[in-house]
Amino acid sequence: MHIFIRFYIFLFFIFILNACGEVVTKVEYPKTKKQNIVEDIFDQKIEDPYRWLEEFTSKESKDWVEKQNALTNEYLTNPYQKRIKKELEAIWISDQISVPYKKGDKTFYFFNDGKKQQSIFMMKGCDDCEPEVLLDPNEFSKDGTISLGNVSVSPNGKKLAYSISDGGSDWRTWKVMDIETKEDQIDAIEWSKFSYATWESDSTGFYYQKYEEPDEALVDVNRSPELYFHKLSDSQNKDVLIYSDNKNPDWSWSISVPDEGDYRVLSIGEGTDERNLIYIKFNKDGDFVPVIKELKATYYFLGGIKNTLWFYTTLDAPKGKVISLNINDAGQLSWKDVIKESNPISTVSIVGKKIIVNYLKDTLTKIKFFDLDGNHLSDLNFPDEGSINGFYGKMNDDTAYFEFTNYVTPEEVFEINLDTLKYKSYWKSSVPDFNVDDYSSELRFYPSLDGTQIPIHISSKKGLTINKDTPVLLYGYGGFNISILPNFSKTFYMWLKSGGVLAVANLRGGSEYGDAWHEAGMLLNKQNVFDDFSSAAKYLHEQEIGSSDTTVSLGRSNGGLLVAATMLQNPNLFKVAIPQVGVLDMLRFHKFTIGWAWTSDYGEPDEREDFMNLLSYSPYHNIQKDVCYPTTLITTSSRDDRVVPSHSYKFAAKLQENQSCNNPILLRVESRAGHGAGTSKDKQIDEIADIFGYALSVIKGN
Predict the structure, then answer these.
(1) Which residues participate in catalysis according to the annotation?
(2) Architecture in CATH of 15-90+436-700
């Protein structure tokens, strides 16, 4: 817009002196239009006065957002915010790499020196070769808001398929680069989403998933994807349709190509449901044959040799196991357990003819090595506790890489010899002014409302005096079978560096203890997640680790729902609540972009039992009058096409309308960003400085 409308109503409108002699201010919010929308759904009168904000790309909504941002900016600019931003800019300058992987003699990884807006994709042409820049997404745009999505190197190591995201959108455009010349080819794939590029074994092309071109890219519902094969140098309109199913519009596709053999493995999933079907094409010219025909369990293809295929599965094993499928010369199939269920499996891979299993023991990683028949070879003898990930590669590789980290240990990458299973340090991250010996992290357990013991990681600076006056950041997620495991982040480090305690609760709804842990926090059991989170705050306060006057709750996406629902149910438990890009209207989440896919975890709003359960905790519908809610900073992005920003807009409008005390309800809307992936360095620093600076200013005072 050429003219920026500034919201300039005085914030200090009414002054009231309380008994302590403090000045209390009344917040004047932007005027928000209300509509008389009332629907009768399952005998419930559902009011939706701010539905017009669902049209978040309209001029009226954008004008409203501009006024909200102007108000919010008046609060976010404070000495804490300025200090944190300056310190973040300093500690961000450090070299980091992703876990490398090999394709033949070449090694690939992402690198960032902390000065770049986006990480660079690197290549080493041989073990002794100097690394070289293969693809620099910082050249895509001046402000770093056009980001690199996924990358996929062809089996022969000569071509690179890569996808681009504009402004944080989930929509991807695929391109192809010649690795030797570093020149883009003529290939261009549009309207791909939630897809990888899976190369054919002969490197002549790749498979991808696409949707129909929408009328409104950031809004329209995404259904009925199709799986295509793109032959290099062909135009997209010549791509071959591999699989689709109009009778099942909620199904999505991914395909796997083994190291050896002509068979192709098609995985079919429904929404975010972890269970899937498996179809196999036994030769290139044949049809896909259903092998797993019902959505009963998770099946993840690990790799294959000749007539044997290995899968990870949860069939009759809620904590996970490894099985094999043998195909004899007559085409008959036989299944066999290879590694039986024990501790929960976080990840499993087959590299160098070894099955490498990442087990979780109370959220901490334990790595075990097995041969292809499932015989235990050895454990990874690692001296520290935390999270280990990596071990990417092919069946015949002799080297792999893995990474170790925890809440107070920056990432270190190791190279492992898959024959001897001996490893050595390959890369160690360093953060300016950070000394690992100055910080500590402890795993504890606390009882939830129903007595279930919940793990919680508590981290702080050594020597910090911890009492009821200490600032505490309580973080959680609790959903979609996603484990929140110990991991170093500059975001959390900034909180610790500022003299706060970090507490990360491993709530039900994740996969820290297998499918049973997930199921205990999904669908009709969703309230358990909110109880777990509020119980974490109560436990901390009982231990005099902060108090309701110093505790900040933080969560993103499903975690944004968690923070919002918990602050409404327990308004006196938190000083500040920060729901980020949250799912906040639980009755209409399924009506936008990919929201319908979340019914596997949340339930179906069009079914009575699920509707009543969703209504019981939906943040937008459970805001009450005459209740003093915590100071709340709601964050979202105008280009978030996963959890559309109207969730946050409507929630902010209704919460501002009903707030009965002077705790501000603020909305921070980023423009050139999406749900989170691909956000530029500067925008990450600005957001962290804003939310932590504001939280500390509320707790400690300006």
Answers:
(1) 557, 675
(2) 3-Layer(aba) Sandwich (3.40)
